[in-house]
Each structure stands twice: as structure tokens, then as C-alpha cells.
Amino acid sequence: MLVSTDVTKASKADIVDDHSSLDTTMTLLSRPARIHHIMSQSSEDDGGLLDEVGASTDDRVLVVGGTTADLLCASVRRGCRSAMGVAKAPAHPEAAEVVVAPRVCSLEQAEEIAFCARKALLHGAHEGRLAMRLLGVGTVRLARSLVARLNALGYACVRLRRAKGHTLVVTGRFAAAVPSA
């Protein structure tokens, strides 16, 4: 691998990516450039979930399940403080102000995400927000059950909104725990 002082003297053909096959030359000069390229090619419109909860530069984002890459990229483009993606809702999540779940297919999965989100949002620096995209058949019935469950868990301002096709988006807010003096 070339050090930064050598990059200015090297031609494009001299720069080889250690993580690619040896005969493949790297057309992008650095990993951040490759990440930027991947972000610009993001195909899924998952920034909409971040819009639903008003994610901002002060927020740490936790993406649970589904296609986490597009939401992670959308979080970076938005300038969020940090973003982490997990395939399944962890029992002990990191603190976050925003939790999004792009592909929820069952009430059990939604409840698991809601419990995980509650733990993450309680440790956040300010009011936490949750957004879940419900997919599949019977989303209206799933949404009604989920709204009742979220209210029972202490979420406030729980809303349902129909998105493209048959999907529903559920959002809720959760007040951060106030440290005791």
C-alpha cells in the first residue's frame, strides 16, 4: 500500500487495492472515496424513515434488521452523530436517539424491536424516536396491535401512515430518562 506522500507521485495504474485481486487496479484513491461512491449509488429510498422521525446531526441512529446499508448511508449523508446497523434487535443495545426498522413482518418481530428501541432510547441524550416499516399481508391488523403495544410500553405520539403500496409506517416518541441529581 502506498503512503500518502507517494500518492501524489504515483499514477492511477500504480495504486493497487490490497483487498482486491492483485491484477485489479484501484480507480478510487482511498476508502472514504469508495464509501462515497457506494453512498451515491444507494438505490433504496430508506431516507424516508429518517424523515419520519426527523433525524438530525445531534442523533445517534440504530438500524434494526432489513437493509441496513441504505439507512446507514442515509444517516451519514444526513450528518447524524453516529449510525449502527444490526441484523436482529440486540438485548442490550447502545444508546440512541433514533431507532429505525425498515422491514417488520410480524407482531413478534415488532415487539422485539420495540423493547430493544425502548432500552436504546432511554439512554439517549434527548427525546427518542422510533420508526418501523410494516410489510406483508395483514399490515393493518399488525399495526393496530402494535400501536396498542407501543402505548403500553410508554411510547407517546404513536402514528400510523400508509406509504407506497401496502406498507404502513409506525412512528413513536419516547422521553429520555432524566439523570437524577
The multimeric state of the shown protein is single chain
Kindly estimate the percentage of residues that lie in beta strands according to DSSP.
Answer: 15-25%
> pLDDT under 50 segments (min length 5)?
1-31, 38-44
Percent helix among the residues? 25-40%
Largest beta sheet: strand ordering: 2-1-3-4-6-5
How many H/I helices? Answer: 6
Mean pLDDT reading: 76
What's the Cα radius of gyration? 20 Å
Separation, N- and C-terminal Cα atoms: 52 Å
- Please state the structural category: alpha/beta
Globular, elongated, flat, extended or rod-shaped: what is the shape?
globular
- Largest sheet: number of strands, sense, barrel closure: 6 strands, mixed
Q: Please trace the helix and strand order, writing H or E for each element.
A: HHHEHEEHEHEE
Q: What is the strand tally?
A: 6
Task: Explain this structure.
This protein has 6 helices and 6 strands. It has helices spanning 4-7, 31-40, 47-53, 68-78, 107-122, 139-152, and strands at residues 60-64, 82-86, 98-104, 128-134, 156-162, 168-174. Strands 2-1-3-4-6-5 form a 6-stranded mixed sheet, with helices on both faces. Helix 4 (68-78) links the parallel strand 1 and strand 2 (82-86). Helix 5 (107-122) runs parallel beside helix 6 (139-152).
